[in-house]
Amino acid sequence: MSVGESVSVTVSVAVGIWQTVWRGVWAVKWRSVALFLSALVPFGLLVDIMPAGTRYAVGLLGGLLAIYLGWSYYVVERAPQYGGLFGARALAVGVVGYVVVIIALGWLVPSPIALVHLGAVVLIFIYYWFIAFIAFFHDQIGRSKYEPEPPYPSLTVLIPAYNEEGYVGRTIQALLDADYPTDSVEIVAIDDGSTDETFAEASAYAAAFERVSVVTKANGGKYSALNYGLLFADGDVIITVDADSIVDRDALKYIVAPFDADETIGAVASNVTIWNRNSLVTRCQQLEYTIGVNIYRRALDYFGIVMVVPGCLGAYRREVLTEVFAYDPDTLTEDFDVTMKVLRAGYRVSVSDARVYTEAPATWSDLYHQRLRWYRGNYMTILKHWPIVTDPSYGYLNRIALPFRLVEMFFLPFASFVVLAYIGWLVLAGHLLTVLAVFVFFTSIVFLIAALGIQIEGEDWRLLVYAPLLVVGYKQYHDALNVKCLIDVLTDHDLVWTSAKRVEQTQPTESETAPVSDATSD
């Protein structure tokens, strides 16, 4: 090769490298990077004002958890034969030993307040630099690992409906309008013994569209309606949609994409968005969904252990639902329960970019009744699947998902009130600056997590106004309800379904419920 040719090749390689680097720089979502790294300021200030012993204690526990997570990754991915070593139970024992050590070294004063405070600080570190970081990374490389490509599988969409007059028609119409091959979708609405015009409203669509059918049964609950609907399902993928939810136009394509890409995936979750944001309650719920549900799901997606496929839009392989015997009657949260059954059967559960719009409770009373069912059902489901906690063969589900969920459900609600009592004591003792400093720190972190979630999810930036309520007010409302529901589950085994009132539960107009023909919907 001549000198001229050598120079030409060198220049071409250099240009290629430069173009690759330049495209990479432009592909970076710099606003997300700036938001994520800005948390270094409040965390740095917190570390700076901590007593030396507290810094050592936080660092030691952080190191223990980092070793645990690294070991968990190695065991699950590379050496499953060592699954019984340093698992979730060993971690619990290690944490107890850690508490003994830091007390013996004088790094922590032995009191409930000190332990809870230390736990809260460590958890906020973990949530931001582990869970939020994974969601941030998820956004940087592309919000979804799965892009929809034909050929698309055949679908059966199940819509369980009880007294959904004025809603079920809109739900069916949105599915008919979805961008999906019409010959590959069948829609089955299941009237679960409604006492209003739900059956008639759905039947109008069945009369107008061959791919819509309506079946009816005596009222037996959502789980029984879904099981009954499965008897009429022919699709390879089963999709469930709540009768008060409206799927985005491309939602069906996105929610089935993971099945084609990975045969180990048994179920797929959607991205839930609240459409009725006209009150303080609903706006707080949307912010809660953005940072507490959707971001958390995206983090768990990396491990294939998304723990809840939401009932408002979820997808399952037909054979997987058959294998786990579909829906059970023994919890109040059939979506959480069936997802856990899919995970226990050895399948991965992923998240997609499929978006669904759903109605949220519009008053505190309605929110109370909705969450009463949710939180009772959550505790019932965790207790039902308790063997996962002690069985290391469940991999990431045992090592990562359940420990986080147990802390969230059994520690945080009680710790919240211990901290609240401590803050009350500080105020009475005149330590107002200390209380203000703690409030500013936690609010700033929640604010940054909320901003990151809004950036990732493309949400309304005005929701940031409500971030402080997720520290004081809205949070304690849910913590108190969690404590009540745990007591209910432990003391009363005959709990009933509770639900919120519908915002638009009135007789709909003809234009709201009349089916649109196939020609019009196209």
From TrEMBL:
Keywords: Glycosyltransferase, Membrane, Transferase, Transmembrane, Transmembrane helix. Residues 156-325 form the Glycosyltransferase 2-like domain. InterPro entries: Glyco_trans_2-like, Nucleotide-diphossugar_trans. CDD domains: CESA_like (cd06423). It comes from the Archaea. The chain crosses the membrane at residues 6-26, 33-50, 56-76, 88-109, 115-137, 406-427, 433-454. One of its GO terms (molecular function) is glycosyltransferase activity. PANTHER family: POLY-BETA-1,6-N-ACETYL-D-GLUCOSAMINE SYNTHASE. This is Glycosyltransferase family 2 protein.
